[in-house]
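quick one before i forget lol
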Amino acid sequence: MSQGSVALAKVEKLIDFVWGLNKRIELLEEKERLCASPQKGDTTEAKVVKVTTIHEYTEFVRELFAKKNEAADGFMHAAAGNSGEAGEIMDMIKKHWVYGKPIDREKLIEEMGDQLWYFFALMQLVETDLWAVIDANVKKLRKRYPQGYTDTAAIARRDTMGARP
């Protein structure tokens, strides 16, 4: 298998991973809906959103992110949230690596979903979508690794040549 084929296979795995997250989000929401019980004295029903597409998930995030999404507040909220969720994921992986603690798969998926939510919120602030982000990443990596991944190409970072320091 050529290095280009290996790189393409890695990109395809990334796309499959993102699509898999969409399905996991759907399952978690269904689980939450089934397990949720109304609070005492609460007469309102929660709005249940069944998400089956990336577009529907984008709209779901837009609805929830509406309160604190203006200017610097929005960027800080999305970036700090994304970073915080990444930290929770890292802590879980660290405990597995260092202490041999088993990974709680459901908790990991929950945290990945939270991180995804903040990632989608950030995309909305820069007025882009998932496919534009994927396209930009694929173009960058194809430029960086024209012959497939190598440590030398990773260090050279051909895609940043001529960029500002």
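fyi The longest helix spans residues 3-35.
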